[in-house]
Design goal:
- The structure holds 2 protein chains of 2 kinds.
- By secondary structure, chain A is mainly beta.
- Chain A has 2 helices and 11 strands.
- Chain B has a single domain, classed as Lipocalin (Beta Barrel), CATH 2.40.128.
- In chain B, a hairpin with a 2-residue loop joins strand 15 and strand 16.
- Chain B starts with 7 loop residues before the first strand and ends with a strand.
- The N terminus of chain B is likely disordered.
- Classes of the chains: A mainly beta, B mainly beta.
- Chains A and B meet through helix 1, strand 1, strand 2, strand 5 and helix 2 of A and strand 1, helix 1, strand 2, strand 6 and strand 7 of B.
């Protein structure tokens, strides 16, 4: 088929479908993206029965890989993981303590076995409200609200936040890793 | 908070590749910027466990379009010269059923399904959770009454009551649009040649089509069906029933945000449109043929064609 005839047919196609374009709008709403999870990791390594440490989380990292203009960021999950138990630290060891962000309490534990968070678990998991054996775990809405407040305006997003964990345990010799991870959604403009 | 509307109205007249791509890239050509090859860039930045439900209406429409417009008569001569070049346009009607689906938010939110927007819907739903948390489902990106497509095709025959239908479009990469290749082949065979006393023309057909867009999308469609037609001077009434399948594979390296960089993603989406009934009209003006039909199945599709030839 000659090129002219081919494009004649194509042009007819364009004419025929032109009416289909009426009312067709693309990109009518902002896209949502999953933000890069950011985490704070602590390595407990003490012969004592108490532990405390702090580190920083680079909040700007949630925008890693996003090349769109960002309207806002929200947190939709925070997880806790206690793993890499070593040097005789037992999974049945219970801990009592808290975690905070910039001094605002985010979570509180009381007599919670390390095994409770042997796999990554949301601090908002409803089943954490009814732990056996007198253990209790709770998140602090003020801490969650503080976190969302930091992320609400990307233009004034702080470079980092200070995350602190600390507490006492039912045994001496605490050798394990603690990871607090933040999951966010990003709203593009 | 979020801005509301960013309208990107596509000009009515663009090259053929844009028409073919309309249905394919409508979910992906979004956002405030059209960078180099935005189609593939947008895909690479999307990640969601609910993406199947979000894109399903798009896949259904895409598959229905690929399986449309293949015939406009069941009359096939035993032997004769028949070559016709056709320009076929198709469109799937986007109704309310295509604009919403039930999705489940991720933990720790309640696992109760929530009705939210598909790619053709409006704003995505918001699930509220403990501690004042909220999870927002993806917003709809395309507002349209139809999901259009168009394709040129050629009909060649007739030998022993058989015709061949061919679709072939090779379009190289150009600026912000990726390479597109469409190849479809099919055969239609007259059944009424075995039933001379049949008051109507009868035929059966099979068709296979493949469409690739860049390195990201690979779509395949196949259908088998039976057709019937009756001519009244210049006018032909035709119809048919058809079983069809369509699948779309989306392959890309996820470069967006996430815990694992450069993750290869392969998503296989299957059209829910399996059966259709078609009814249409064809107007034969010697070397010019005009036709239009409507197909009812999981989705409603319309097609119209212009043919030149004998």
């Amino acid at each position: 088929m000659s090129t002219n005839k081919y494009f004649a047919v194509c042009f007819v196609s364009i004419i025929v479908v032109a009416s289909f374009w009426i009312g067709c709008e693309l990109g009518v709403n902002p896209l949502l993206f999953d933000g890069s999870p950011v985490s704070a990791r602590f390595a407990a390594s003490t012969a004592d029965s108490s532990y405390a440490d702090s580190t920083t989380i680079a909040l700007h990292d949630v925008l890693s890989g996003i090349d769109k203009h960002v309207d806002s960021i929200t947190v939709f999950n925070v997880t806790l993981l206690i793993d890499s138990l070593r040097n005789g630290t037992l999974a049945s060891t219970t801990v009592t303590g808290s975690g905070s962000i910039d001094g605002t309490t985010l979570l509180t534990l009381s007599n919670v076995p390390l095994s409770t968070f042997s796999s990554e678990r949301s601090i908002f998991d409803p089943s954490l409200k009814s732990l056996p054996g007198g253990a209790s775990f709770s998140f602090d809405p003020a801490g969650v609200s503080y976190l969302n407040g930091l992320l609400k305006h990307p233009d004034s997003l702080p470079a980092s936040v200070k995350v602190k964990v600390g507490g006492t345990a039912s045994q001496s010799g605490l050798y394990f890793d603690v990871t607090i991870k933040l999951y966010t959604q990003i709203f593009a403009k | 908070m979020r801005t509301r509307m960013t309208k990107n109205r596509i000009p009515a007249f663009r090259p053929l590749r844009m028409i073919i791509m309309c249905g394919a890239c409508s979910v992906l050509m979004v956002g405030s910027s059209l960078s180099q090859n935005p189609f593939e860039e947008a895909v690479k930045q999307l990640s969601s466990d609910n993406i199947r439900g979000y894109l399903q209406p798009f896949v259904n429409g895409f598959g229905a379009n690929m399986n449309s417009g293949l015939y406009h008569t069941a009359e096939i001569n035993d032997l004769g010269f028949h070559v016709q070049f056709q320009a076929v346009a198709m469109g799937v009607i986007i109704g309310d059923a295509e604009k919403a689906y039930n999705a489940v938010p991720p933990a720790p939110f309640s696992q109760t399904p929530v009705q939210t927007a598909t790619v053709f819907g409006d704003l995505g739903a918001t699930a509220t959770g403990p501690g004042g948390l909220s999870y927002h489902f993806q917003n709809g990106q395309v507002r349209t009454a139809y999901m259009p497509s168009a394709i040129p095709q050629m009909v060649i025959g007739d030998i022993a009551g058989t015709q061949a239908v061919v679709r072939y479009v090779p379009l190289p990469e150009l600026q912000d649009l990726p390479k597109i290749t469409v190849l479809g082949v099919g055969l239609r065979h007259s059944i009424s040649r075995y039933i001379p006393e049949s008051p109507v023309d009868l035929a059966v057909g099979v068709f296979y089509e493949r469409l690739t867009i860049g390195d990201v999308i690979d779509a395949k469609a196949m259908n088998v069906g039976a057709q019937v037609s009756k001519s009244f001077s210049l006018l032909t009434l035709y119809g048919g029933v058809q079983y069809e399948t369509a699948t779309m594979s989306v392959n890309y390296t996820y470069t967006g945000p996430g815990s694992t960089p450069n993750t290869k993603v392969n998503m296989e989406l299957e059209s829910e449109n399996k059966h259709r009934m078609t009814g249409g009209l064809s107007l034969n003006l010697f070397i010019l043929n005009l036709n239009a039909d409507i197909s009812i199945g999981k989705v409603t599709a319309v097609s119209a064609g212009v043919g030149l030839g004998l």
